[in-house]
Amino acid sequence: MTKLTYIAFDGTQFDVDAPDGSTVMENAIRNAVPGIEAECGGACACATCHVYVDEAWKALTGEPESMEEDMLDFAFDVRPNSRLSCQIKVRPDLDGLVLRIPERQG
């Protein structure tokens, strides 16, 4: 299991043990993390699972691919560290990953 930390817009922290191979979005939904809506169910067809990857983890999570970049155009308050959580696969080297949730989803 890989530990993920979600920080809601109000500062509330949610620590989740996530199975490797799942996505950051799936784990947010399974654990009722507020602010992740995931309307498309992880198909990269909306921007309702938008998160900010903590700067210390940005290089390890990588850059968004073109389809994700297109969907981020619909997200609220996009920043250089914005990602769609459905596109980040959980793996052992992401143990401790910190993600912040925007004020609202796109």
What is the structure about, briefly put?
By secondary structure, the chain is α+β, with helices and mostly antiparallel strands.
Count of distinct structural domains: 1
Largest sheet: 5 strands, mixed
Coarse morphology:
globular
- Could you spell the SSE succession in H and E letters? EEHEHHEE
In CATH, the topology is named Ubiquitin-like (UB roll)
CATH architecture: Roll
Q: Level of helix content?
A: 10-25%
Total beta strands: 5
CATH class: Alpha Beta
Q: Unreliable stretches, pLDDT < 50, 5 or more residues?
A: none
Determine the number of helices (DSSP H or I, runs of at least 4 residues): 3
Order of adjacent strands in the largest pleated sheet? 2-1-5-3-4
Portion of residues in beta strands equals: 15-25%
**Structural class by SSE content:** alpha+beta
Q: Specify Rg, calculated over alpha carbons.
A: 12 Å
Distance between the termini: 30 Å
What's the overall average pLDDT, rounded? Answer: 97
Would you identify the CATH H-level superfamily? Beta-grasp domain
Salient structural properties:
17% helix; alpha+beta; 106 residues; five-stranded mixed beta sheet; 3 helices; globular; Ubiquitin-like (UB roll)
